[in-house]
Amino acid sequence: MNEVPDFVKPSIEYAELWPLLLIFGAACAGVLVEAFLPRKLRYPVQALMSIAAVVVAFVGVILIALDLPEIEDGAGRGILAAEGAIAVDGPTVFLWGLILALAFAGILLFAERQLEGGVSAFAGQAAAIPGTEAERQASTRGLDHTEVFPLMLFAVGGMMLFPASNDLLTLFVALEVLSLPLYLLCGLARRRRLLSQEAALKYFLLGAFSSGFFLYGLALVYGYAGTMDFGGINDAIANSTGNHALLLTGIGLLSVGLLFKVGAAPFQAWTPDVYQGAPTAVTAFMAAATKVAAFGALLRLFYVAFGNERWNWSPLLWALAILSMVVGVILAVAQTDVKRMLAYSSVAHTGFLLTGVLGLRATGDITPGQITSTQAVLFYLVTYGFLTIGSFAVVSLVRDASGEVTNLKRWAGLGKESPVVAGIFALFLLGLAGIPLTSGFTGKWAVFSAAMSAGAWPVVVAAALSSVVAAFFYIRVIVLMYFTEPAPGEAPAVTMPSVLTATAIAMGVGVTVLLGVLPGPVLEMAANAGEFIR
Amino acid sequence: MSDFPWLTTLILLPILGGVALAFLPRTPASEASNQRSAELPKQVALSVSVLTLGVAVAMILQYDADGGMQFTETHEWIKAFGAHYALGVDGLGVTMVGLTTVLVPIVILASWPDADDRPTNVFFAWVLILEGLALAVFTATDVLLFYVVFEATLIPAYFLVGGFGRGKERSRAAVKFLIYMLAGGLIMLASVVGLYAVAADAGNPSYLISDLSQLSLDTWTGRWLFVGFFIAFAIKCPLFPVHTWLADTTASATPGTNVLLVCILDKIGTYGMLRFCLELFPEASEWATPLVVTLAVISIIYGALVAIGQDDMMRLIGLTSLSHFGFIVLGIFVLNSHGTAGAILYMVNHGLATTGLFLVAGYLVRRRGTASISATTGVEKAAPILAGLFLVSGLATLGLPGLSPFVSEFLVLVGSFDYGWYVGALAVTGIVLAAVYVLLMYQRTMTGPTPDDVATMPDLSIREIAAVGPVVVAMVLFGFFPQPLLDVINPVVDQTMERVGVVDPPPAVSDVPAEEAHK
């Protein structure tokens, strides 16, 4: 007779997990607000509550980071929480802080109402079919979808859980939690709604497809290791029990799911359409924060669970890093739409980030004080996140009567029309191009040197060469803004944003300049984050 | 005063001046409401650059000619990268600082009306910022700091070419210039990162040149890293076959911008070869010598030949520089003390002579509205001063004894004959060809019948003469007395020779005037 064991209450380390729970809680509260509060109150309550939740969670993350316990061998700091499902370690808290900071900027962009003349950039009534009477009514009544705030908080929660997941199932759940709200948000644009809905559908279908791959890979790895736990998988690989083909196929399929999320070639096909169709505020938030979360998860999965297998996965990443950079920069050259151009540039940046991931080395090989690959990638994510959110925020300012103007031709002469906005955008472009004295350069240096130290110099050379091509299309936009006369009657106009968007842009500018000139403290923080714990 | 941060002051002064200028009203001078507000940005710019020159002179007077890094400042900058904010000058650096600070006020004075139809303050702001960054390049003693400012100079240079040039093609030229430079820079970045990896593996991740030169690189690592640096510097110089940005850029930019680009910024290329290629990778430099010498000789002859065929004066002058940089690179890579001393001296003298040519040609182009040689004749009757200054600068360019470029050309040739008689023999043809392009250009534009539209052309104004005058004086002065310059340069030559393992006496000061006396 089998005895059924008593149910044991799982231990949840609330002291370390409360910022995560707070964000989820605020998201749930946001749903209730939608249900119970009168329409007029919803916008201020939602916006304030989201901002408050993010700020409090950010403070909490700092407090947690300050007293993370060191693990036994001193190679890292942190604890395994929630019965080993979630790892709250140095990289986790670093990424949490970054995601929350980006979410803060994102909420500010979501809450912007001045650009559209008193309403947000989201559809008045998403259910109304584009071009019908219902849509016209929704827009004349000045309706707003304030559900975007809780949706975003759910996504933020998922993003926080994603890089912290320490077993495959939690990883999958987090992936879905972060993705589903984003699919929805992509389809909520107030203008060009068909494009926006198409983007949402495309993102959803391809995302669902990649989740399928991910799940299949998960099953195969479980079949190999007999455990979902990252540490357990690592041990299983070290003892090389089980069928090796199962493991390799599993790693390949899991990679497809993750690389889809980060937008690496050849899984980049969704990025231009989704970045272009989604409301610009959503694009800004999604492009920055999703990449941060997904790279965090990718690092943990590959370093912790598959670290012993790196001789088998690193050739794959070598090829994909080079492919992403090449595909990204070459296709970006051909773009005529600023959002599509930034989308392809993000594919190239994924390649640079993967270059950093390749820098993994055994701890013994690293000279004290030398930059490690975890440190390099974490730092690059900071620089990239703020550059991206800032540049999309600027894109949302350039408008004409029919909404945002994203056709690059219409940006001609912006430097004369609005020197400040053009100057800021030029700064972001120089940053993305990696020109020294901007954060893009220090970030690039960090990932290149990590990869170079690990012997991946062909990837570094390829990265340097594709940076040249990348510089070409970034600079083309600067030429357009400053040295090209606009076609008659087509001069672009810049709408003055409220303090919300202005703050988000200012954050981008501040981080870009600061990390370009004095990156020391943030690099130090990334170094202190230490390694992933098992 | 010995602890005074001279170099930081030198760098910050023009940059802050430039930033302040950028906040003045943006109206083009030609639309300004009154004369005073139109002239203000120019006056501010001139004062700042003269002040910078003053600081530089004060510093140079305290410089100890015995060599070694002086006025050093070292602060930790990015600990995780091993990067320092480290400045210092030796004989090479101090020479380049002198050249830069002298040329910038001249450029500002000569460019007085060149930006009147566009936001005037912006032009002069970029000029000053460029000066500050160039000074940082020549004084940085940390590889990462050098790289950062090296790349940062591109931003002002790009906006100067793209925003204020003459031709319609200027934005294309600006992009071409920038892409070439970035390509070189990013290839160099791979090497810079590689240096870090090597240094870190050796246990001391530091970017200070003094630390890096202690590294023992294995043969092929050193060579690959050398290649990355060398390509960037070769594009910068420029050297055949990566010179194709040069003529387009000089044909599109204003004369003042051309001086800044060709006479100051391009020197970074040869400066970098001396400072980084030879210093950090002596073995690899020796390994690369045959190829580099070949490219240099091709540059000398090819640049001169192509220059002869040009109709656009600015293109022509740009291409002569290809030939001259060929000489400089040749001097550096023959790896003997005559060659090196000649090359460093050549960097100064080329700066002077080419500045003269660019500025005087610029005056002419401004008056005629075209840079075409075939459309201009008989200027010497209408504007004798202009023609005279043009002739002096031209003669200096072709290496006439008595003017400073002769001394350096001579030393480089001596060095190249030491390396191999065939190299010297080929390089000499560059001097002959220089005579052809300079004299042909002079003959076609200045002599001959004077058409009516040329006859009414005003001669140079006091301001224009004041700008070019100092350059001509300096060329004559250093033509007869190169000694003070050689005194400063020789310790650097010794040090470089020691580094690459060549033992021969540096050129005694006495042999140069003695050779000259024979002529």
Describe the protein's topology.
The complex is a heterodimer of chains A (534) and B (519).
Chain A: H1 14-36, H2 39-66, E1 78-81, E2 86-89, H3 90-111, H4 133-140, H5 148-164, H6 168-186, H7 193-225, H8 230-238, H9 244-262, H10 270-277, H11 280-305, H12 310-333, H13 338-357, H14 373-395, E3 398-400, E4 403-404, H15 414-417, H16 419-433, H17 439-453, H18 457-483, E5 493-494, H19 499-517, H20 520-528
Helix pairs in contact in A: 1-2, 1-5, 2-3, 3-5, 3-11, 3-14, 3-19, 5-6, 5-11, 6-7, 6-11, 7-8, 7-9, 7-10, 9-11, 10-11, 10-13, 11-13, 11-14, 12-13, 12-18, 13-14, 13-17, 13-18, 14-16, 14-17, 14-19, 14-20, 16-18, 17-18, 17-19
Chain B: H1 6-22, H2 35-62, E1 70-78, E2 83-89, H3 91-110, H4 120-139, H5 143-152, H6 154-164, H7 170-201, H8 209-212, H9 219-236, H10 245-252, H11 255-265, H12 267-280, H13 282-308, H14 313-333, H15 337-368, H16 379-382, H17 384-397, H18 404-419, H19 421-446, H20 452-455, H21 462-480, H22 483-500, H23 511-518
Helix pairs in contact in B: 1-2, 1-4, 2-3, 2-4, 3-4, 3-11, 3-15, 3-21, 3-22, 4-5, 4-6, 4-11, 5-7, 6-7, 7-9, 7-10, 9-12, 9-13, 10-14, 11-15, 12-13, 13-14, 13-19, 14-15, 14-18, 14-19, 15-17, 15-18, 15-21, 15-22, 17-19, 17-21, 18-19, 18-21
- What is the number of strand segments of chain B? 2
Amount of beta strand of chain B: under 5%
For the largest interface, the chains and their residue counts are:
A-B, 42 and 41 residues
Which strand order do you get reading across the main beta sheet of chain A? 4-3-5
Integer tally of domains of chain B:
1
Q: Low-confidence segments of chain A, ≥5 residues, pLDDT <50?
A: none
Main beta-sheet annotation of chain B: 2 strands, antiparallel
Question: Structural class of chain A, please?
Answer: mainly alpha
The major sheet of chain A is characterized as: 3 strands, antiparallel
Helix/strand order of chain B, N-terminal first:
HHEEHHHHHHHHHHHHHHHHHHHHH
Radius of gyration of chain A: 23 Å
| H/I helix tally of chain B | 23
Number of strands of chain A: 5
Proportion of residues in extended strands of chain A: under 5%
